[in-house]
Amino acid sequence: MSEWLVLALAMAAACAVVLTIAVINNRRVGEDDDPTETPDVMEYMTMMIGVVYAIVLGLAIAGVWEGRGAAQESVRREAQALHEVVVRSEVWPDGVRRRITADVDAYVRHVVGPEWRAMAERGEVTAEGDALLHRVRRTVAAYRPADAHEAEAYQPLVDQVAAADDARSARADTAGETMPGVVWFGLVTGALTAVGLIFALQIRRTFRELLLAGLYSALIAFLLFLIWAIDAPFGRGVSATTEPFLHHFPHLGD
């Protein structure tokens, strides 16, 4: 099922539940009930709870968005480092350069294909990816420069492979979900509380009040969905992309 379909259903369900409760609750109110008698302290508490929950939602969105940014940055650094490995190896003999290029291409092809799907489905990198990157490292480290000019490129190449390995480790660390279960419990409980407090103010069945109640509940449903969609940086609708790899290795995107 599409993530956007899930969002639409969640927002529609939130609106339907709130409006149904509002209509049923309104039918149970007696004729002598006066909604203006809501205590002032009740309005103050409702406002404060809404403000506190809005702050919590904002912090949660900022946290998962920062995690997504870190994941995308690790992809960019890894792709850039591998690109540098290929470019810097051009000063070495053609045979060595072709082996390095072939090893890097095999690794990148695996990352943007099977490994990316593994991160999306299981939140982890693959052992084959580790092996392919190790092969790149072994190919680079095994060459012995024939002269000073080739020797000048040796250490930078080794450093770039190490940088790619470090970026891969960072990508692996951010591959899974970042929000702990206890945080989700707080977010969902806070949402139910915030929406439930609508009825503490004795909402009526007027079009204006029902419209605002529906929009309020739909907004909270949308924000929770947004947090869920960003929470897995490689696995859902608002996720990191393979664009940095395909930018440096466009021939592998065909």
Keywords:
single chain, 254 residues, mainly alpha
SSE topology string: HHHHHHHH
Form type: elongated
Percent helix: over 70%
Average pLDDT over all residues: 82
Radius of gyration: 27 Å
What is the count of β-strands?
A: 0
Quickly count the helices: 8
Provide the low-confidence segments as ranges: none
End-to-end separation in angstroms reads 27 Å
Secondary-structure-based class equals mainly alpha
Question: Strands, helices and their partners?
Answer:
Layout: H1 3-28, H2 40-88, H3 94-122, H4 127-142, H5 148-173, H6 181-196, H7 207-231, H8 243-248
Helix pairs in contact: 1-7, 2-3, 2-5, 2-6, 2-7, 3-4, 4-5, 6-7
What is this entry, summarized?
With 254 residues, the protein is mainly α.
Describe the structure.
It comes from Streptomyces roseolilacinus. The chain is mainly α. Helix 2 (40-88) runs antiparallel to helix 3, helix 2 (40-88) packs parallel to helix 7 (207-231) and helix 6 runs antiparallel to helix 7. The radius of gyration is 27 Å and the shape is elongated. The model has no long low-confidence stretch (mean pLDDT 82). The relative contact order is 0.19. It contains 8 helices and no strands.
